[in-house]
Amino acid sequence: MATEVERKINLDLETVVTEYDDDGRLKRQGNLVTASAHIITAVIGSGVLSLAWAIAQLGLVAGVIVLILFSFITLYTSRLLANSYRSPDPILGARNYTYMQAVRNNLGGTKYKVCGLFQYGSLVGVTIGYTVASSFSASAIKRSNCFHKHGHDADCHASNEVFMIWFGIIQIILSQVPNFHKLSGLSIIAAIMSFNYATIGLGLSIAKVVAGREHENPMTIEVTETNKQKMWNRFEAIGDIAFAYAYATVLIEIQDTLKSSPPENQVMKKASAIGVSITTIFYMSCGILGCLAFGNQAPGNFLTGFGFYEPFWLVDYANACIVVHLIGAYQVFSQPVYRLVEDWSNKQWPECEFIAREYPITIPLFGTWSLNLFRSIWRTMYVIVTTTLGVTFPFFNDVLGLFGAASFWPLTVYFPIEMHISQAKIPTYSFKWLWLRSLSLVCLVLSLIAAAASIQGIVKELKHYRPFNSVY
């Protein structure tokens, strides 16, 4: 009898070891591939579409230098941030499940609150930006088909609001996915879509460069823009490039999906190197070739600049890939927001059945889905609010620049550097301390001027903007 009891205890212990991690949560299954897919999904977003415009504003040489500079900064600080997932020791320390928690445990309560303001404000802003960007691509498909059917003199303007609403409906459905761990498949699909539309954009740019671009277009910057406006555009372009590398806001959350062996920080550093390297190659290719193809006429969304001529189906397919990618990217950036509110609510009202109770529902071919009423209602309301804000303020380039500028310095540079200084106990005024603080200061200045330029652009757009009447 004693032997049977011991055997049962051993089996139970084996089950615990097999199914649960060291923190008592279900064992994480993420690996280098899934983490890289999450990063590529988060990084290669709508930001890639504005890079031809950004490089055109800065000039080809300066634009490439700025792009490479931001890629190195992002890669360097992401490696520092990866060490903050566990603290105080980056390998054996306790887990930090969110970016905010990492800041609280490394830097204290005041900076924890400031971090939360920037991080979740940025996450909400990105989801609004992705809602707007998806509508531009969907509208481009509708216009392309209209021109193909009725001729290029037809009035084929399309309302963006309708497509934003459809995007929101899809997000309401996908937002019912419980957590980040269930999004690996969606991220992999989204990453594939990003490669598809970036590759098509490259091919079309090469074809346009070979064919020679038209210079007669009266909408050139030299004709329509003053020197002062050119300066603002260059500053805004810096913000657009910063936005293109904005994934620090979800880095800790992505790292929390990884298996504990090998150490999470080692895998995350490799994933960051893979993700940032691949995206930088695509960014440079799309930005340089897009700039060469359009020159100073480069549009804010370079895929829409190829017109609606043959092969119209190829541009349609590229824009469809953008929409699918942004559907996945929206979820990657919104999951931390969902988790923040739900964890806080569970902590505040642990006995509330409306918040805590799960209702298992069997769905044919998909298995069992756990319905939580609070989660479903709260996430639906979040999507409705972000969709409404996207419909109200559909300023693509200005919005991207503002969100990029507002989030880049604090989240990609300042907090990772400060946590590294604290965790590694770097002596004050040592060479490394001075280097890290100087890097932070330079990035702060860049963020401030980019934010000012984006705000100026939004104010300019508002002068002739009519709410709920966005037409592409």
UniProtKB/TrEMBL annotation:
Domain of life of the source: Eukaryota
Presence of the UniProt keyword NAD in the record: no
Transmembrane residue ranges: 32-55, 61-82, 188-211, 273-295, 315-333, 376-393, 438-459
GO molecular function, one term: symporter activity
Residues annotated as domain Amino acid transporter transmembrane: 29-459
Gene Ontology CC: endomembrane system
InterPro entries assigned: AA_transpt_TM
Subcellular location: Endomembrane system
Family stated for the protein in its record: Belongs to the amino acid/polyamine transporter 2 family. Amino acid/auxin permease (AAAP) (TC 2.A.18.1) subfamily.
Biological-process GO terms, alphabetical: amino acid transport; auxin-activated signaling pathway
Protein name: Amino acid transporter transmembrane domain-containing protein
Reported function: Carrier protein involved in proton-driven auxin influx. Mediates the formation of auxin gradient from developing leaves (site of auxin biosynthesis) to tips by contributing to the loading of auxin in vascular tissues and facilitating acropetal (base to tip) auxin transport within inner tissues of the root apex, and basipetal (tip to base) auxin transport within outer tissues of the root apex. May be involved in lateral roots and nodules formation.
UniProt keyword list: Amino-acid transport, Auxin signaling pathway, Membrane, Symport, Transmembrane, Transmembrane helix, Transport
Membrane topology: Multi-pass membrane protein
